[in-house]
Write a structure and sequence with these properties.
The chain is an all-alpha fold and about 70 residues long. Helices cover about 60% and strands about 0% of the residues. α2 crosses α3. The two termini are about 15 Å apart.
Length: about 70
């Protein structure tokens, strides 16, 4: 399970707010959070920078905290 929703909520962002920050549409964020489709590399990189953690952590591939 990925950490996108948890990280987004910790920053006080809505799905729309995160989508706006990344330049994508809100349904994309919904799909990422619900693991319907993975984010593209550039969006994953942007989220890691925004959230201040590794791409692995964004995607739930490690146990480090943000």
């Amino acid at each position: 399970m990925n950490n996108i929703k948890r990280l987004r909520e910790a920053m006080g962002l809505t799905q729309t707010g995160l989508a706006d920050r990344l330049g994508v549409k809100p349904p994309a964020v919904f799909k990422w959070e619900n693991e319907i489709s993975p984010p593209k590399y550039e969006n994953l990189l942007a989220m890691s920078k925004l959230f201040g953690c590794s791409m692995d952590h964004v995607m739930g591939q490690d146990t480090a905290s943000a």
